[in-house]
Amino acid sequence: MDRRGFLKATGVAGFAAAVPPFLTGCATPPVRPDGSVETVPVDDLMKQGVRTMWIAPHPDDECFPGSLLARSRIHYGNPLHFLILTHGDGGQCCKPEGCHPDLATVRGQEMARVAETYKATLRHDRYWNAPLPVESFPLRHEIFKDRWSKQGDVQGLVTAEIRRFKPDIIFTFHPDWGATGHPEHMLTSRLATTGARLAADPGVEAGDLPAHRTTRLYYMVQQYWLLKAAGRADPGPVTETWDAHAPCTDELNCRDFMCQATRHHETQNDDMSMVRRMRKIFGVLRLRQVDYLTEVQDPAEPQDPSHVI
Fold first, then answer.
1. Which of 19, 34, 55, 230 is deepest in the core (most CB within 10 A)?
2. pLDDT of residue 229
3. pLDDT above 70: percentage of residues in the chain
4. With contact defined as beta carbons under 8 Å apart, do 101 and 121 qualify?
């Protein structure tokens, strides 16, 4: 995951720590996908009691929505499920003693500890993860066609997992930039959006699992001001913002809970320590609520060449 480029684009850690609150973004009154007023903001919906699901490609991606996930599960006590499609074995190992027997195994163990910290259930698959360097990453649709689809029916897997868990809310990345420009972020978002639609269709078979209609699907929209200035931010619209300083436990707000949980990702310490140092950029989360029944995000659609890291 190219978080390091994302974090460097926002400025050095010392600068980010000094960023005044007004530069981290303004609150957006909640609206629905059709532009009408959303009368039940995401926090109010979580307070009512919802099954919450995060769909992402990599262990450690949960640092992006982690504050919201913690609010739902740790503060409100809602069921939480992680669907992670790769073991991140294309990345690096930052452990001084190395990663034994291999990076995939250690990252799987780390992800299991993170799920335990969030009190979440976890399905962790082993789809191919593009190896570093970033410049060698295939395009999104190439990964779908030439890698993931040849390993198995990844779209069917996502659809079935949605039916199996029966989420009320799904969170995933933005399908056109994916916070950092990683093609697997974009691809997984498209699989999640399509999967939610297929899961709701009683005419689509997924084993013996009955159709399930998710109440809401949200894209995480990363629009930190320096990224916007550099032209490296997720495109809008933003339909709602959420303050990650909301209480999570008696001792921690939700942003700080997320930061603490990143310590389990020891193999990714270079990036995760930077996340903790630059926690101010995670103080306001921007969301886009989408109508997944009409939002077409084809995993096989060729990637826009301008949407490359």
1. 55
2. 67
3. 90
4. no
> What residue spans define the domains of the chain?
3-19+35-289
Instruction: Output the pLDDT for position 63.
Output: 97
Scanning the structure block, which residue is given the tokens 């480029």?
Answer: 5
Inter-residue contact 210 to 162 (CB < 8 Å): no
Whether the bond into 133 is cis, omega within 30 of 0: yes
Residue tagged 């270079």 (tokens): 270
Q: In this structure, which topology does domain 3-19+35-289 adopt according to CATH?
A: Rossmann fold (3.40.50)
How far, in Å, CA of 194 to CA of 286, rounded? Answer: 22
Distant-in-sequence, close-in-space partners of 189: CB < 8 Å, separation ≥ 6: 55, 172, 173, 174, 175, 178, 219, 297
Report which of residues 4 and 159 the model is more confident about.
Answer: 159
Q: How far apart are CA 283 and CA 189, in angstroms?
A: 23
| CB within 8 Å of 47: residues ≥ 6 apart | 76
